[in-house]
UniProtKB/TrEMBL annotation:
Keywords: Signal. It comes from Cypionkella sinensis. Residues 1-16 form the signal peptide. The keyword Signal applies. This is DUF1499 domain-containing protein. Pfam families: DUF1499. InterPro entries: DUF1499.
């Protein structure tokens, strides 16, 4: 009985830590160039799946990036359990946090204007693999961008 209680208390503490962990904008809303070290050469307009997230380059004319970032911001904010951490379309970089339904695991997605369009990098905060969740979210957001 004591062991079961201890396990429940530890699980509740871990869940509270994960769900309530603050999102520091200075840690997550950072420039994506140079690209994160684990990314070599992503295919344009194709999602590159990483162990801890996903990455995509969208080739867009320079005069369209701000409008596309604004549209992406609306799509992201309409997604379940997603909030803006920092940035705006006007500044050329936006970061959102999306939390899983049960545990509240945070995944961070940053979209940034680049000379060739928009780069989007979605990554997890905790754990060693995201089971394709970030790539699926990016695919859904990009599909909505194209409609």
């Amino acid at each position: 009985m004591v062991l079961a209680s201890a396990v429940l208390i530890l699980a509740a503490g871990a869940m509270a830590y994960i769900r309530l962990a603050p999102s520091d904008p200075t840690q997550w809303n950072v420039a994506l160039t140079p690209r994160p070290a684990q990314i070599t050469t992503p295919s344009p307009d194709k999602i590159t799946v990483l162990n801890d997230g996903a990455y995509v380059d969208l080739n867009v004319a320079a005069d369209q990036t701000q409008a596309l970032l604004a549209k992406l911001d609306g799509i992201a904010l309409a997604s379940p359990r997603t909030q803006r951490v920092a940035g705006s379309a006007e500044t050329g970089r936006i970061t959102w946090v999306t939390r899983s339904a049960f545990w509240g695991f945070p995944d961070y997605t940053t979209a940034e204007s680049t000379p060739t369009g928009i780069t989007i990098f979605a990554r997890q905060r905790f754990g060693a693999g995201d089971w394709g969740v970030n790539a699926a979210r990016l695919a859904a957001w990009i599909t909505k961008l194209n409609t």
